[in-house]
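Renewal narrative, Specific Aim 1. Our central claim is that a sequence can be written position by position from structural information alone. The example that follows is taken directly from our test logs and has not been curated for this report. It begins with the structure tokens describing the chain, in the order in which they were read.
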């Protein structure tokens, strides 16, 4: 087997330039992501337990598990993560659809979603049901 003698190692200047360019791209991307998150959190009202909500979803966007919702009445609200493993998809951010009715009673952490004459529920900042990806380690140690 013959080894090629024409191999040239990359120039150090090009490698350094590539690394600097990559770092710049990451920093710029991070800056614009943070600006978008800042805009969403100031423009949208956070749904807390003490709030009451009865709104119809007009449009929404998600960011890192949070749902930023614009309602038919013009309100803008955002909901932190909520998962119900009895549904597919299980995350509220993926479950929501335009036209859904969101109901949350004052003093409650439960969020009800009405869609096609059916009711679904989620717990704010919580999980409902068993996570299918969670490993039950305890069963391995029982004897």
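The sequence written for that structure reads:
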């Amino acid at each position: 087997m013959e080894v090629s003698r024409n191999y040239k190692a990359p120039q150090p200047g090009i490698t350094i330039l590539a690394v600097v360019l990559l770092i710049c791209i990451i920093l710029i991307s991070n800056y614009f992501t943070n600006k978008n998150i800042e805009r969403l959190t100031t423009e949208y009202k956070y749904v807390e337990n003490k709030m009451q909500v009865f709104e119809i979803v007009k449009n929404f966007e998600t960011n890192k598990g949070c749902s930023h919702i614009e309602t038919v009445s013009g309100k803008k609200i955002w909901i932190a993560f909520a998962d119900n493993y009895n549904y597919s998809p299980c995350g509220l951010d993926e479950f929501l659809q335009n036209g859904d009715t969101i109901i949350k009673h004052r003093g409650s952490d439960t969020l009800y979603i009405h869609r096609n004459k059916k009711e679904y529920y989620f717990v704010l900042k919580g999980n409902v049901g068993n996570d299918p990806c969670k490993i039950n380690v305890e069963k391995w140690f029982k004897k």
